[in-house]
From TrEMBL:
Compartment(s) where it occurs, according to its Swiss-Prot or TrEMBL record: Plastid, Amyloplast; Plastid, Chloroplast
The UniProt record lists the keyword Phosphoprotein: no
Name recorded for this polypeptide: starch synthase
HAMAP family registered for this protein in UniProt: Glycogen_synth
Catalytic reaction(s) noted: [(1->4)-alpha-D-glucosyl](n) + ADP-alpha-D-glucose = [(1->4)-alpha-D-glucosyl](n+1) + ADP + H(+)
GO terms for biological process, alphabetical: amylopectin biosynthetic process; starch biosynthetic process
Family statement: Belongs to the glycosyltransferase 1 family. Bacterial/plant glycogen synthase subfamily.
Native source organism of the sequence: Rhynchospora tenuis
Length: 1107
């Protein structure tokens, strides 16, 4: 057999031109290449040759991706291990190839292989190391290797097996690779002498040719052990006492290894080590070095061996994704185990703490009982002359004795019947004895008796006499309110009794605690289950919200699957276009595979939609796409710059968390004035629940309710604005909050608003918040500011901080109410990257405002939500019966009765209208007054809770309340104050909640009402229109929004409008009660939480980041 050997005239470590020569004297060896990354064919060195065996066609390289890197290696095997060799392969019907018949070399394909862009760049950047040049990529490799080793990633021997030469004298052992899924393939055995002979021939040949490196066996295959040889004397490592190999598989991307080479006995200065080739390897990349900074790295091109394998770059990518998936599953399992262990530890700690508390309580109860019993003992005896006595007089617990009673001149002397009501040990178990007495004629006087069994644990017996059995007696003889007490003569010792009593009390406390904990656990589990089900329904509605334009089949997109995308261009800018092209990618357009090739969509079976199919990779977490009229672009439907995004479930990659900072002047529950404080807290919690990092910056008012701040600690201080500003960090509702406290006293004024210099105070705070972020080195992705009070953040950021250290951030500005601070709002909208308001309808209503009109392209409406933990009828301590949609009738009936009793209304089955509001012109106070009288005319009840900041309006409603108290005291009540517990009871007890606002940016009242199963009656404006769909008139609009009709609404701002909605509502209660009850159940099951708004805000945040 003849084989070709490519010989270099000069050592590979040399720079300059190299010539190739062919020889045909290695007939016994097959061909394999040690190739130098990036070299031309004239610089390719063939270690040994054979044209037989399958060849992997290299694919064009792509940019490297960040992956988990494992440093691998193994101790060498013993010298006795038999050396294996794959038999020579032939082609051409069993005939070996001649030099002329040689299969096209794999090196000829190297011209079509490009290094990844990053590595190509780094390979050009060389640094001097010793007598050679080392690339920055090598330096990075060293850093990666060091990091992996110092991070205690799986140690050497787990996956890559590198062994010393067969002739080493050092002790060697074998380690089984962990990752290999199949055992190493059995290779034909070769005699050690034959092995030495062949390697010696190769070594001598390569010495004569000036080659510095070769590999044995020549055909490198997976699941095989190879030996790599280096001629140290002809390399950059000449005279270095320590020679090591450093490398990895598949383009430096997988299973890094480092191993020491040992000198061989062959002619020349040959050193070698053994390496096991994993099953998934298709190439091996490596360099040699001295353990320090001197490298033999093939003139900065590194060494390369191709592995004869069916694995290629594409299939390796799939393997890595699968490996990542398995790794994530393992990590998740380990994390779950740790969490279970930690929870078990916490449970045991809680149990021990509870046990100690119960023991202490039992001891305390025993001491208290001892004291009480001692007083009873002082009053006790064995008999009372002429009044009562026992026969026999000596008795003990468990004995049956006869108690005699003389009723003469006693309170019961005229009673027809006499009963004994008794207990023991100062009534420790309450009333435990009840016996009817019988008159006896054997004694002089009016004596009666009853047979009584003495309780086992009785020290003293306690009783009274009555004229009837328990619950029926009217007259008693209770010994002048001291009761009767008798000592049990032969009772157990007092010491033993109290020990047993303490144990009994302890067991009772334990059982009570256990029952409470189990009930609480069941309730918590049910609450979590209901939340999860609601969240799942909301996500489904979110996916279907664009169904009139786009949806997928299946609806839930899963990683690794193929989905069909359906698109209806008739509702978009592409309406009427002859062609529509799908353009997509994954992971917010950042997937490593890049954008998908444009796909021409075809007509779907329904005739109204177009469709195309998309393969979803395993490492996708988001599917992104837009549509265009041509393959090369043209007009795009990109959802008004937001693009279309669909979450991908079950992927091995997770969306990186975003860092969001809210800068606000209100936050519930610690500094709440209006709805702004609720939004800041609830939105932050909802986004945090999605896995993102959320922080809040708030002024440190002296009026903050610090009872709701956990772990408050001073963090640092900084100078700005001519004063020291102290920074405190605490947790509020699970959110990290930074409190800024200027030492100039700006926020030591006892209130949030209401000072004459509020604009100056809040402007100072906004500037200080940005300065704090800058000086602390924070780099948020999103700065979210709210209303006029923190509006200065938007323009101060653009003017002073965007180019000076906070360049990563995008600014979102939310308008909660346009009626205040229009100048500040106008500047903020102009400066912000995105601006929002709190409902879609309100955004349209204010779109003509001069502050907003020029910026409609970046202005969006996102409806607010409510906090389900605060507003939860199933876990509400302010209502009498917890309820869900399953027992809504029972729960609301109990709440209505409790409300009627609390307010002094007639307890009867009336339709009850609740009104919870601030009494301002905006809230429609003239409509409220009319609705009160209209409800009373329809024989309903009305409850109003609220107050007016304007004294004139407050006095007006005080007078109305007095008038109603005189004329309808049993059916109307006005509470003109703030009362949080009462508001909960009204939401639960009312049948209807009236919200007749003249304008309402969003409104939370109607959302809370539906959460409690109360039906909203609202005016069609702002967020009221977006959330309340009339049961008679809005069925199509509700269907388009993905909900069912849920209330009554009206237009106009006059009495007839209110009457139109209120009359229909009351008539429904009177005439269709069953349907009304089903409506209460329906609205309770709708999700008006922050689940959906949080998703919408995240879409907005990502859109801002993209822009």
């Amino acid at each position: 057999m003849e084989t070709a050997l490519l010989q270099l005239n000069r050592p590979l470590c040399s720079r300059g031109k190299m010539e190739l020569k062919l020889r045909t004297n290695m007939a016994a060896f097959s061909q394999q290449t040690v190739q130098f990354n990036g070299a031309t064919r004239s610089r390719v060195f063939t270690c040994a040759s054979s044209s037989s065996g399958p060849r992997r066609k290299p694919k064009r390289s792509i940019a490297p991706k960040t992956r988990d890197i494992y440093v691998k290696g193994a101790a060498p095997v013993s010298p006795q291990e038999e050396i294996e060799e794959k038999p020579s392969q032939t082609s051409n019907n069993g005939k070996s190839r001649t030099e002329d018949e040689t299969e096209p070399s794999i090196y000829e394909e190297e011209d079509r292989i490009e290094k990844p862009d990053l590595l190509s760049f780094l390979d050009k950047q060389t640094v001097h190391v010793g007598s050679r040049y080392s690339t920055i990529s090598n330096t990075i490799l060293e850093d990666k290797q060091h990091i992996m080793e110092s991070s205690k990633v799986k140690s050497a021997g787990d996956d890559v097996r590198i062994e010393e030469a067969w002739y080493t004298e050092e002790p060697m052992q074998e380690e089984k690779p962990i990752v290999e899924e199949t055992a190493r393939e059995e290779k034909p055995k070769i005699d050690p002498e034959e092995y030495r002979r062949r390697v010696l021939i190769l070594a001598e040949e390569n010495v004569r040719k000036g080659n510095i490196c070769f590999v044995y066996p020549e055909n490198v295959e997976p699941n095989q052990e190879i030996e790599i040889f280096l001629n140290r004397g002809e390399s950059a490592l000449r005279d270095k006492p320590d020679v090591q190999i450093k490398g990895a598989f598949n383009g430096w991307r997988w299973k890094f290894f480092t191993e020491r080479l040992h000198k061989t006995e062959f002619n020349g200065d040959w050193w070698s080590c053994k390496l096991f080739v994993p099953k998934q390897a298709y190439r091996i990349d490596f360099v040699f070095f001295d353990g320090g900074n001197v490298y033999e790295n093939n003139n900065s091109r590194d060494f390369l061996l191709y592995v004869q394998n069916d694995m290629d770059e594409s299939s390796f990518e799939e393997f890595l994704v699968e490996e990542k998936k398995r790794e994530l599953e393992r990590i998740a399992q380990e994390q779950a185990e740790r969490e279970r262990a930690e929870e078990e530890k916490r449970r045991r700690e809680r149990e021990e703490e509870a046990r100690n508390a119960d023991l202490a309580q039992a001891k305390a109860e025993v001491e208290r009982k001892k004291e009480v019993l001692s007083r009873a003992v002082q009053l006790a005896g064995t008999s009372s002359s002429g009044l009562w006595e026992f026969e026999p007089s000596g008795f003990r617990g468990g004995d049956r004795v006869r108690l005699f009673y003389n009723r003469s001149s006693r309170p019961l002397e005229h009673a027809q019947n006499i009963w004994l009501h008794g207990g023991y040990n100062n009534w420790c178990d309450g009333l435990s004895l009840a016996e009817k007495l019988v008159k006896t004629d054997k004694r002089d006087g009016d004596w009666w008796y009853a047979d009584v069994v003495i309780p086992e644990k009785a020290l003293i017996l306690d009783w009274v006499f009555a004229d009837g059995p328990p619950q029926e007696a009217r007259n008693y003889d209770n010994n002048n309110f001291q009761d009767f007490h008798a000592i049990v003569p032969n009772s157990i010792s007092e010491e033993q009794f109290w020990v047993e009593e303490e144990v009994r009390i302890f067991k009772r406390l334990q059982q009570e605690r256990k029952s409470k904990e189990e009930a609480a656990q069941r309730k918590a589990e049910r609450t979590a289950r209901m939340k999860a089900e609601m969240k799942e329904r909301t996500m489904r509605a979110f996916l279907l919200s664009q169904k009139h334009i786009v949806y997928t089949d299946p609806l839930e997109v899963k990683a690794g699957s193929t989905v069909t995308v359906f698109y209806n261009p008739s509702n978009t800018v592409l309406n009427g276009k002859r062609e529509v092209w799908f353009r997509g990618s994954f992971n917010r357009w950042s997937h490593g595979s890049g954008p998908l090739p444009p796909q021409k969509m075809v007509t779907a079976e329904n005739g109204t939609h177009l469709k195309t199919s998309v393969k979803v990779p395993l490492d996708a977490y988001m599917m992104d796409f837009v549509f265009s009229e041509r393959e090369d672009g043209g007009i795009y439907d990109n959802r008004n710059g937001m693009d279309y995004h669909i979450p991908v479930l079950g992927g091995v990659a997770k969306e990186p968390p975003m860092h969001i900072v809210h800068i606000a002047v209100e936050m519930a529950p610690i500094a709440k004035v209006g709805g702004l404080g609720d939004v800041v807290t609830s939105l932050s919690r909802a986004v945090q629940d999605l896995g993102h990092n959320v922080e809040i910056i708030l002024p440190k008012y002296d009026c903050i309710n610090f009872d709701h701040v956990q772990d408050l600690q001073f963090q640092r201080s900084f100078e700005w604005g001519g004063t020291e500003i102290k920074v405190w960090l605490g947790k509020v509702e699970g959110l990290p909050v930074y409190f800024l406290e200027p030492q100039n006293g700006m926020f030591w004024v006892g209130c949030v608003y209401g000072r004459g210099n509020d604009g100056d105070r809040f402007g100072f705070f906004c500037h200080a918040a940005l300065e704090f972020l800058l000086q602390s080195g924070s780099s948020p992705d999103i700065l979210h500011c709210h209303d006029w009070s923190s509006a200065p953040v938007a323009w101060l950021f653009k003017e002073h901080y965007m180019h000076y250290g906070l360049s990563n951030a995008k600014v979102i500005f939310t308008i909660h109410n346009l009626e205040f601070g229009i100048h500040q709002i106008s500047k903020a909208v102009s400066s912000a990257d995105k601006a929002t308001t709190v409902s879609q309808t309100y955004s349209r209503e204010v779109s003509g405002n001069p502050a907003i009109a020029p910026h409609l392209y970046k202005f969006h409406g996102i409806v607010n939500g409510i906090d389900l933990d605060i507003w939860d009828p199933y876990n509400d301590n302010f209502i009498p019966v917890p309820y869900t949609s399953e027992n809504v009738e029972e729960g609301k009936k109990a709440a209505k009765i409790a409300l009627q009793q609390k307010l002094g209304l007639r307890v009867a089955d009336y339709p009850l209208v609740g009104i919870i509001t601030r009494l301002t012109v905006q809230k429609g106070i003239h409509l409220i007054k009319h609705a009160i009288w209209r409800t009373l005319e329809r024989n309903g009840q009305v409850v109003l809770l609220g107050s007016a900041p304007d004294p004139r309006i407050q006095n007006d409603f005080v007078n109305l309340g007095n008038q109603l108290h005189s004329s309808h005291a049993d059916r109307a009540r006005l509470r003109l104050t703030y009362d949080e517990p009462l508001s909960h009871l009204i939401y639960a007890g009312a049948d209807f909640i009236l919200v007749p606002s003249i304008f309402e940016p969003c409104g939370l009242t109607q959302l809370i009402a539906m959460r409690y199963g109360s039906i909203p009656v609202v005016r069609r404006t702002g967020g009221l229109y977006d959330t309340v769909f009339d049961v008679d008139n809005d069925k199509e609009r509700a269907q388009a929004a993905g909900v069912e009709p849920n209330g009554f609404n009206f237009e106009g701002a006059d009495a007839s409008g209110v009457d139109y909605a209120l009359n229909r509502a009351l008539s429904t209660w009177y005439d269709a009660r069953d349907w009304f009850n089903s409506l209460c159940k329906r609205v309770m099951e709708q999700d008006w939480s922050w689940n959906r708004p949080a998703l919408d805000y995240m879409e907005l945040y990502h859109s801002a980041r993209k822009s």
